[in-house]
Amino acid sequence: xSETDHEYVVQSKAPGWLIGVSAAALxxxxxxxxxxFGLQNHLTQAEKNLAAANQQNTALADKIEDTNERxxxxxxxxxxxxxxxxxxxxxxxxxxVAAQRTATRTAAETAxxxxxxAATAKQVGDVQTDVASVKTDVGGVKTDVASTQADLAAxxxxxxxxxxxxxxxxxLIATNHDELSELKRRGERNYYEFTLHKGQAAANVGxxxxxxxxxxxxxxxxTLALSADDKxxxxxxxxxxxxxxxxxxxxxxLFEIVVNNVSKNEVSGYLSTPKNVPGPIQVP
Length: 284
What we know:
- By secondary structure, the protein is an alpha+beta fold.
- The chain has a domain of 113 residues: Tick-borne Encephalitis virus Glycoprotein, domain 1.
- The chain has a 4-stranded antiparallel beta sheet, covered by helices on one side. Strands 4-5-6-7 form a 4-stranded antiparallel beta sheet, with no helix packed on it. A two-stranded antiparallel ribbon has the order 1-2.
- Helix content is 56%, strand content 25%.
């Protein structure tokens, strides 16, 4: 071999690094091919699974539709068995719902009505209690009126006529305020009440003046000084409820004084005069 041939052989051999790169590229290509093949297998399996799921969904949809059809058929058959159409069944269902709501509302209204009735019953009970109380009060008033009437009847019975200190028969006399009120009510004479105190100046009673000179409460006796028609009259040691009689006026008329209460240094009673005797002058 010549030197020229030796140089050609050396130059014709590829470098080592190029061979390494080529080998690596070949390996990578083989790996990519394997990964692509594996991916293609996965995709194929996924497509199969998806197709199977679609088939199952289709089957379920068919079953649901079949179930609905059967339910509808059964409802129609049931409606026909009871003489109702599907529309009538729906209307009947609506009526039942409305009736249930009405029943619920009616129950609430009934409860409210019962509550109002209870409140009304309580008010009526309160009114009845008040009425009973009023009846009791009226009964008490009637009792009081009956008692008053009985007292008046007793007063009328107790009014008596006695002989006065001048020996003349007196008219009816009053021994207390109630009997005097009855005499005033009858209106047969004029009556003037008074209260006298020992040691005080004479008091105007009707058309005369009267003063208390002496009083003995233990014995119910007293002495009065009377002033009438410019005359002084003394009535000594007179008794409780004894008519003290005297004449007075231009046309002398019989006046009477009755003392019906005697206490320490005080007496009270009334003056009685005929109806035709002028009364005291009223000072404006």
